[in-house]
Write a structure and sequence with these properties.
alpha+beta, PH-domain like, 2 domains, three-stranded antiparallel sheet, 39% helix, elongated
């Protein structure tokens, strides 16, 4: 039973993280295969007298490695969304650890969804007082649609108000 001084119930809570399809083992395998192919091609070109090409193959491997490292670093970003009957909290954490937190009244917030017929849900944003707060920008269209449905249901529940059950002794 909830009393008047008890904390509010959490109606919705989600943590959104960017999806990365290539995990660490796959990354090591990819870099090893790519490195071996580049090395073999470099040796072949070097034997044909085009030895400067070896430097370009090495640079190619380095650039691919750095691109994946940056991609994995960016995967550390996430968004936390929590809804209680009186507050909608959005906490955005960048890949560098910078935290931005927004607290909105769920009664005055609406979910804006931009949908394309072929692609699906392209963009989600919370709108309050004429300002937009983008959400889930790194999710795919299907994930955005599922998230939007769940968030809409939770906002609807927050707008209806909390229903408390009072237990009585019989």
């Amino acid at each position: 039973m909830l009393t008047d001084n008890s904390p509010e119930p959490t109606l919705f809570s989600a943590v959104l993280r960017p999806h990365r399809s290539l995990h660490s083992v796959g990354f090591v395998v990819l870099m090893a295969v790519y490195g071996v192919v580049s090395f073999v091609a470099g040796v072949v070109f070097s034997m044909m007298g085009a030895w400067p090409i070896v430097a370009f193959f090495a640079l190619d491997v380095l650039v691919l490695y750095l691109a994946f490292r940056i991609n994995y670093a960016r995967a550390l970003a996430y968004e936390e969304i929590t809804i209680t009957p009186s507050a909608l909290t959005v906490r955005k954490v960048s890949h560098r650890g910078r935290v931005r937190e927004y607290v909105l009244n769920p009664l005055w917030v609406r979910l804006d969804k931009l949908t394309d017929e072929e692609y699906g849900v392209e963009r989600l944003a919370l709108v309050s007082s004429g300002k937009q707060l983008p959400l889930a920008s790194f999710l795919g269209p299907d994930d955005k649609a599922n998230f939007a449905d769940a968030l809409s249901r939770a906002l609807g529940e927050a707008k209806r108000g909390v229903t408390r059950t009072v237990l009585t002794k019989a």
